[in-house]
């Protein structure tokens, strides 16, 4: 048993080895290895599956009462500086290991079919394995130095995968945008790490929190400096988990292949920021101001992401802003001290969002032969609709993910989101109000995506029909104003259901989407809200107090407000984007004169659409402030350098040159020239005296 715990490092080693094998094969045998595409992908899947089974075993050992395991090896010894590497295995680590490996294995299986005809197929699996290994190494890290190393590896892999199709200018720009934005957060993270090392003299998570608490108890810490260090440290998760104001890279990251979008948004890159805040939670708890900042950043991010997602036409970008909003919920939960609720939502959201992104990939895969391979066409919901009759399995699984994200019982996200909503309301009603309102927006935009994609009539055949294209409203729906604009029921090309290799991961992901939420059901409200997940996080699985029917009924009664607001958002989406008879109602209204309410609604709709289309104007603000402003500042500095600083030096030189030339002709040694100059100057003097 002890031998197994001593070899936990094998979990990230397996995907790392597969990445090395594929990378060496591509480097030394670029032509030969391409003939063994299936074998190459199988190596990645098998190696990671071994790590997944190992992770499940470690998780089971943790929840059945095994102690926390921590192994360290000396890395750098210099005078009083000791840097160590190793791994920390505790309940949080074991949960994250299972989450990362399960999602990554399913994404790899899905990618085997999705990317099969891509020229960079083997390179994709090489990057994918390295990405997964980096995240697993980050999760196992016992100190800030080691976590920073894997943190940068995760950022590097995301750069490679987002820009995987780098020949497309938008993909090249997107990976650079993600890389630069995360460098800002990483610089803040480095400053925070060095600041806390200067305060406590340790990089180790456990020792750092312990020493900080001792110094704080004896009033030996400058709270202002400590707060700044904590905020700098928090800047890293702000960028990595796409929190306001460093969220701008996340929607552009959709330029990468869809399986990567699923992995980034579910279990790797964006989860890294939440994980770090959870790991540093004991330290942040000692600084109330920092906790308030974390909670408000989370609330603003959740609300902002939801409002921008309201009118997105791009399927993947709509899901991306949904991810941003849900990450805000997790950060909000951690900021108000609801540690378990934040991690619980991380788990439930990961499986639900992986299901949604893989479902969107299935949709895009079927749309590309019909509308074209450019993202503006294949990912545009304007050209979708009615896909449920052509892709029933994808539609059902996507609906399950949508219901989960909306917080509808008994799906997974209901249990975690409801806990966050209740805790945020109890902590501070304003935060609770923002969270509840955002929950309604979530239901609206998620079912808007579902209705535009899977319900109604198929719109893929309107691409070359200018009349039908002109009938599309700013919200992405069709206005059925005349018989001419009605869609043909039998388009030339039909979408097709994805193959079994892509459908199997979707079907498997519906299982945790349905049932994993039951891990968080409260078992006994009289014993500190104990539930299965809390037992996991407190390293024990003994003495369950099973919930009674009365307590479960009370729990559901407490959840009525969140369920009501979720259904209210769904109802609005159904009214605006549901079956065609609602559009027929609109057609009758349009025959009449528009009332003031209609005019107000149209103006409000345009306002919301512009807010969503221009991404809350934040990208434009950054463009004018940082790009245009910096460009103007550079021009001003260049002008000052060229015409003022250099101008003074050059002016002195020119003056000296012409002065020398002038004196050269005056001081020629001829007495007649001297007399002429003397007489001329006397003449000017007398003339001036006469005038005065």
TrEMBL record:
Any idea which GO molecular function terms this record carries?
NADH dehydrogenase (ubiquinone) activity; NADH dehydrogenase activity; quinone binding
GO terms for biological process, alphabetical:
ATP synthesis coupled electron transport; electron transport coupled proton transport
UniProt topology in membrane = Multi-pass membrane protein
- Family matches, as InterPro entries: NADH_UbQ_OxRdtase_chlpt_su5_C (IPR002128), NADHpl_OxRdtase_5_subgr (IPR018393), ND/Mrp_TM (IPR001750), NU5C-like (IPR003945), Proton_antipo_N (IPR001516)
Q: Which residues form the NADH:quinone oxidoreductase/Mrp antiporter transmembrane domain?
A: 141-442
Q: Where are the transmembrane segments?
A: 7-29, 41-60, 95-117, 124-141, 147-167, 179-200, 220-239, 260-281, 293-311, 327-348, 393-412, 424-447, 501-523, 552-577, 597-614, 620-640, 647-666, 672-691
Report the locations given in the UniProt record: Plastid, Chloroplast thylakoid membrane
**EC class (word):** translocase
Gene Ontology CC terms: chloroplast thylakoid membrane
Task: Supply the alphabetized keyword list.
Answer: Chloroplast, Membrane, NAD, NADP, Plastid, Plastoquinone, Quinone, Thylakoid, Translocase, Transmembrane, Transmembrane helix, Transport
What are the residue boundaries of the NADH-Ubiquinone oxidoreductase (complex I) chain 5 N-terminal domain, all occurrences included? 75-125
User: Which residues belong to any copy of the NADH:ubiquinone/plastoquinone oxidoreductase chloroplast chain 5 C-terminal domain?
Assistant: 486-641
EC number of this enzyme: 7.1.1.-
Q: Which reaction does it catalyse?
A: a plastoquinone + NADH + (n+1) H(+)(in) = a plastoquinol + NAD(+) + n H(+)(out); a plastoquinone + NADPH + (n+1) H(+)(in) = a plastoquinol + NADP(+) + n H(+)(out)
Q: What does this protein do?
A: NDH shuttles electrons from NAD(P)H:plastoquinone, via FMN and iron-sulfur (Fe-S) centers, to quinones in the photosynthetic chain and possibly in a chloroplast respiratory chain. The immediate electron acceptor for the enzyme in this species is believed to be plastoquinone. Couples the redox reaction to proton translocation, and thus conserves the redox energy in a proton gradient.
Report the family membership.
Answer: Belongs to the complex I subunit 5 family.
Describe its assembly: NDH is composed of at least 16 different subunits, 5 of which are encoded in the nucleus.
**What is this protein's name?**
NAD(P)H-quinone oxidoreductase subunit 5, chloroplastic
In which organism is this protein found? Conocephalum conicum
